[in-house]
Each structure stands twice: as structure tokens, then as C-alpha cells.
């Protein structure tokens, strides 16, 4: 592991300046992904700036009925908060579907969306990877692609984003508060992560030195009836093959509105606007749900691979969406 | 690069100077002789290094010691209320044959203590049917699902899971009462 200096500046502004002025500096929060990357040689910072104590660890009520999640709130505390569980079950379920109890006690609200892909080639410094080493090639394309993307890929990178929490936040129209060397800005959560294109080394629109200080989840009555459903190779403690974050508003057997995002299928949490549009006004039936999945996945491009590839993700995601929406509509029928 | 820090480990205070690259796990094992937390994968995938910090379970291998300056750490060895006394989780692991080789056991025990605390607080898990309502501890089958899900971050290559589940269920019964 490359030697690094460790700093705990007095406040977030100083931390941002400390990272901004050194190209090889990085922020440290929960460390659950970064510390592993230090050990693997995937990350080689010369300075770690610990921000764990520099941003809010509180969940505050917003005047509109939403919540402001401090960047230092631990994933376990966020999932356990009664307001989160009551107003946004999809967010609590997404958090609880991720990692383990130990990791959720360490991981933070600001750090979770910034965790990096679990592509095995990205994490193996002996293989080419355009994300880890721009221009070196992509060992995943034509390699083992079971866990890789089917939407929004490029010829340089087919990695997926691993966070479950991020999929729920994409569905909930969250807003990200960012502090940078030039001041504060707010980024819609769905714009935070990027598609790989020609610059797969970038995961997000954040510049070097920009720090997430809080995430706002706006009031969303539709989220009172919401779910996160994750499908993986074992029952627990594994990353998603596919996942669905869904909020559904049904009345009289008809869909009034929906919020949908998919995980495990793209370089970013995939907000499914086209599927939402297809559902609005449609009858609450399996046929409608299946048709909505078809609309969203029309541009899906499965990857071939020596492990059999990932074409299975199209029917798997379709089935997961259908069963999730059916369950949510069923809740309406019972209510 | 070296740095100084203070750790409280199983009730004793230690001042030490470590390389910034030192994990909390290595600081405990190699600097302080606290060898009950084990190094399994060293990548946060097996749970053998689980310790309690401020009463909460975390992974010592993915924690940089320098970031835990001033922390109150409890290892499985430090859970015992006194010499020749067992913690209820220790006792339950013995009574239910919840281990074979024993390598993962200190991590399992610390994780179990964390799980029991989380159940007592009413925290939901991915196995909780109603995330807003919280876990249903009254139904033995639901409790078993809760235990299996909450302990999923601790691997046991001997496959002692059946005993581990039974041990936690027994102690959790006490939590419910």
C-alpha cells in the first residue's frame, strides 16, 4: 500500500480546500470501499482527508415534509429511522438489502453513492481496465459479464453501479448538496452519476475536491407505497444482478402514477422514466407492467461472455418489475 | 507516515504510534496482542474481524486505526463480565455447538451481540416483512429468518450455521422477555 498522510481539518470547507489543492488527495468517510481499494492497489492516494466528523450526522425534517440526510448519517441509522421507514419504505429496504450489518454501521449517506463498481476486472490491477487506468482497455468486454450492464454501456466500459441506496434515491428525486472549492451547488440525484461513454474513469459529475454534505429527499406521498426488490446469486450479502425501486399510486384498478429505478443494469442507478410514462393511466395488470418493462428495455444490449453472458437480465428484470408492481398494487386492493 | 492515537480495548487504555496504513484489526492483533478478532479475507467479505466500537459491530479490517482515535473497542474476549465468567452469547454458542474449528467464532460472537442489540432497538432488516413496523420477534420462524439475514456478514466455513442460529434464538428469547 502506498504511504499516505492523514488529515482531520477543522471543518468541511478546509477539508474541501485540502483535497482540491492536491491531485492525489481523497476524502475518507466510512472507508468500507476505499480501504479495500488501498489494499488492492486500485486507489493510491497520498493524502486522506477524514470528513466523517465534518458533515451532519442528523436526519432533519424539511418544511415540505421531506427529509435532509446529513452526509455522515450511517447507513444503519438511516435504515432504522422511523421517518424513513414510514415515508420512504423503498429507501429503508434498499439500505437493508445492501452489504451487512457491520458494513452498514460504517458506511455513510455521502459515501454510499460514491462507492465504485464491483467489476472484478476493475478490482484486479493485473487486468486492463479503462475505468482504473484510462486507455488500457476493458477485460470485462467478452470476459465474465454475468454481473455487467445491459443499458447505457460504451465500447470502453460495461460496469454497473453497485449501490442499492442510490437506486431508491434515484426513484425518489433526491437532491444532492455539494460543497466545492468554488462554493455550494445542488445536483439532482439522477444527474449525479454518469454513463461511461469515452470517460469511464469518471463515475459522477463531481469535480476533484467536491464533497457531498447532505442529500434531500423531497416529500413524496406516492412513496408511502413503495418497495425495493433485489435479485442476487445468494439470499443475502451479495450485489444485485438486478434490482427494482418502485413507488406506485393506484386507484380503482388504474395506475395514477409511478416512480421506478433499476439497479444492477447500468453504470448509474437507472431511472425508468419511459416505463413510468407507459404506466400512467394504464390498468394495474401484469400486462401493463410487462409492457412498461419492454418499453424501458427496448434499447438494452446484453453482453456476450465466456460465462454465458448477461442476456438473462432482460427477463429477470422484467419479472422482478412485474412482481414488485403486482405486490404494490395488491397493497392498494387490501387497503 | 506515522501517527499517534489512543484506543480503549476491552476496558484498558492504550497509547500507540502506528503507520497510517495500519488497519484497526492489525493494530489490535499485532500491536496490542488482542488476538480474538481474526483476519480471514482482509477485504470485508467474511466477518472474522468483527469487533464492537461504541457497542456497534464493525469490521476491523476495513477500518483504518488512525480514524478510530479515542474509540472504545470491545472484542469477543472482552465481553466476559469477569474472569471465569461467560457472556450469555458465549454460553449459548457452547451450549448449541455453534462452532467447529472456532476461527470465525469471535467475529460471530461480536456480530451476535450487535444483532441482539439491534433487535432490542426494533431495527428492521431485509427479512422484516413490514419495514415500518419492525421485526416480529414473537414468531419463531420469523425470528430465525431475521437471525439468518442479520448474521449473513459472518461466514463459517465449517458450516456451523445451524448451531449459530439456535444460539442466537435462545438469547433473543431473553431479549423478548
Notable characteristics:
heterodimer, A: alpha+beta, Enolase-like, domain 1, 5-stranded antiparallel β-sheet, 4-stranded antiparallel β-sheet, 11 helices, B: Ubiquitin-like (UB roll), 5-stranded mixed β-sheet, 15% strand, oxidoreductase activity (chain A), FAD binding (chain A), FAD-bd_PCMH_sub2 (chain A)
If you consult CATH, what is the topology of the domain at 221-334 in chain A? Enolase-like, domain 1
What do the pLDDT scores of chain B average to? 96
Strand/helix succession of chain B: EEHEEEHHHH
Number of domains of chain B: 2
The major sheet of chain A is characterized as:
5 strands, antiparallel
How far is the first residue's CA from the last residue's CA of chain B? 51 Å
How many separate helices of chain A?
A: 11
Class inferred from helices and paired strands of chain A: alpha+beta
Quaternary status: heterodimer
What is the β-strand count of chain B?
5
The gyration radius over C-alpha positions of chain B equals 16 Å
The string of secondary-structure elements of chain A, in order, is: EHEHEEEHHHHHEEHEEEEEHHH
The count of strands of chain A amounts to: 12
Helix percentage of chain A: 25-40%
CATH architecture of the domain at 221-334 in chain A: 2-Layer Sandwich
Helix content of chain B: 25-40%
Amino acid at each position: 500500500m502506498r504511504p499516505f498522510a492523514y488529515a482531520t481539518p477543522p471543518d468541511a470547507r478546509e477539508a474541501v480546500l485540502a483535497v482540491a489543492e492536491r491531485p492525489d488527495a481523497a476524502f475518507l468517510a466510512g472507508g468500507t470501499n476505499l480501504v479495500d481499494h488501498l489494499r488492492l492497489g486500485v486507489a493510491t492516494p497520498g493524502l486522506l482527508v477524514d470528513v466523517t466528523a465534518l458533515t451532519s450526522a442528523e436526519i432533519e425534517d424539511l418544511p415540505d415534509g421531506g427529509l435532509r440526510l446529513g452526509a455522515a448519517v450511517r447507513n444503519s441509522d438511516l435504515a432504522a429511522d422511523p421517518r424513513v421507514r414510514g415515508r420512504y419504505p423503498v429507501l429503508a429496504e434498499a439500505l437493508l438489502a445492501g452489504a451487512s450489518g457491520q458494513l452498514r454501521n460504517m458506511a455513510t449517506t455521502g459515501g454510499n453513492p460514491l462507492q465504485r463498481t464491483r467489476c472484478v476486472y476493475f478490482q484486479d490491477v493485473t487486468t486492463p481496465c479503462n475505468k482504473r487506468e484510462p486507455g488500457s482497455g476493458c477485460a470485462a468486454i467478452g470476459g465474465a459479464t454475468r454481473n455487467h450492464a445491459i443499458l447505457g454501456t460504451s465500447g470502453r466500459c460495461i460496469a454497473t453501479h453497485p449501490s442499492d441506496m442510490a437506486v431508491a434515491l434515484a426513484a425518489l428525486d433526491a437532491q444532492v448538496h455539494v460543497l466545492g472549492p468554488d462554493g455550494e451547488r445542488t445536483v439532482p440525484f439522477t444527474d449525479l452519476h454518469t454513463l461511461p461513454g469515452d470517460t469511464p474513469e469518471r463515475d459522477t459529475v463531481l469535480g476533484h475536491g467536491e464533497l457531498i454534505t447532505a442529500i434531500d429527499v423531497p416529500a413524496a406521498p406516492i412513496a408511502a407505497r413503495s418497495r425495493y426488490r433485489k435479485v442476487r446469486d445468494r439470499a443475502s450479502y451479495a450485489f444485485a444482478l438486478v434490482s427494482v425501486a418502485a413507488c406506485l399510486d393506484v386507484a380503482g384498478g388504474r395506475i395514477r402514477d409511478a416512480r421506478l429505478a433499476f439497479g444492477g443494469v447500468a453504470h448509474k442507478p437507472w431511472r425508468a422514466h419511459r416505463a413510468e410514462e407507459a404506466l400512467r393511466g394504464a390498468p394495474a395488470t401484469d400486462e401493463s407492467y410487462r409492457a412498461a418493462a419492454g418499453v424501458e428495455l427496448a434499447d438494452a444490449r446484453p453482453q456476450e461472455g465466456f460465462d454465458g453472458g448477461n442476456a438473462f437480465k432482460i427477463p429477470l428484470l422484467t419479472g422482478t418489475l412485474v412482481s414488485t408492481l403486482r405486490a404494490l398494487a395488491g397493497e392498494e386492493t387490501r387497503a | 507516515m506515522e501517527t499517534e492515537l489512543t484506543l480503549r480495548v476491552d476496558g484498558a487504555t492504550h497509547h500507540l504510534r502506528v503507520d497510517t496504513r495500519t488497519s484497526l484489526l492489525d493494530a489490535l492483533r499485532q500491536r496490542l496482542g488482542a488476538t480474538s478478532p481474526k483476519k480471514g479475507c482482509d477485504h470485508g467479505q467474511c466477518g472474522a474481524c468483527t469487533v464492537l466500537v461504541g457497542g456497534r459491530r464493525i469490521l476491523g479490517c476495513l477500518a483504518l486505526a488512525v480514524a478510530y482515535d479515542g474509540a472504545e473497542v470491545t472484542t469477543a474476549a472482552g465481553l466476559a463480565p469477569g474472569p471465569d465468567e461467560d457472556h450469555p452469547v458465549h454460553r449459548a454458542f457452547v451450549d448449541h455447538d455453534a462452532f467447529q474449528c472456532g476461527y470465525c467464532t469471535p467475529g460471530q460472537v461480536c456480530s451476535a451481540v450487535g444483532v441482539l442489540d439491534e433487535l432490542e432497538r426494533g431495527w428492521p432488516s431485509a427479512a422484516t416483512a413490514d419495514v415500518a413496523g419492525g421485526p416480529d420477534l414473537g414468531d419463531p420462524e420469523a425470528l430465525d429468518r431475521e437471525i439468518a439475514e442479520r448474521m449473513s456478514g459472518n461466514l463459517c466455513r465449517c458450516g456451523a450455521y445451524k448451531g449459530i442460529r439456535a444460539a442466537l434464538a435462545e438469547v433473543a428469547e431473553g431479549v423478548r422477555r
